[in-house]
Design goal:
By secondary structure, the protein is an all-alpha fold. The chain has one domain: Nucleotidyltransferases  domain 2 (Four Helix Bundle (Hemerythrin (Met), subunit A), Up-down Bundle). The protein contains five helices and no strands. Helix 4 crosses helix 5.
């Protein structure tokens, strides 16, 4: 996640746009989670897994948006962002759980995860989502605090 410019030099318009975009990605993540539950209840586990992957990527994009960065368009960028967050949080388990989300993404195309495996992976992905949501809220709070100090909004 490469910030476009330092938060302290962003205009009010930039910060509002980043906050709005971040919120849109967060809403998308929440829709993906709801869809994943619905699909899992219908026993469409491959699709449910892809929705869980979508939730993770949407949260990562919400964080990237707050940092003034571009959306993560390639799988490599998504993996790099997850690795950076794991390092920033000092949490190796986060990265292991993220790999489960990646596995569910691959499973959508290859169908190798059975119901038992899906349940295990689902739990891990929910841990990733919780950590990303926490990171997003802390970052959003920091951005708003800096912005309000500068007299914005």
């Amino acid at each position: 996640m490469k910030p476009r410019e330092a938060v302290g030099t962003m205009s009010d318009v930039d910060i509002r746009a980043f906050l709005e975009l971040s919120s849109e990605y967060e809403r998308r993540a929440l829709r993906c989670l709801a869809n994943a539950d619905e699909l899992a209840n219908r026993d469409e586990l491959d699709k449910a897994g892809e929705m869980l992957w979508g939730a993770v990527v949407s949260y990562l994009n919400a964080i990237a948006a707050l940092m003034g960065g571009e959306p993560l368009r390639r799988h490599k960028e998504v993996s790099r962002a997850a690795r950076e967050i794991a390092i920033a949080r000092g949490n190796k388990e986060f990265l292991r759980a993220f790999r489960r989300a990646e596995a569910l993404h691959v499973n959508f195309y290859h169908g190798f995860v059975d119901r038992e495996g899906f349940i295990e992976y689902h739990r891990a992905v929910l841990e990733v989502v919780a950590a990303l949501s926490d990171t997003l809220w802390k970052l959003r709070g920091a951005v708003l605090k800096l912005f309000l100090k500068g007299g914005g909004l």
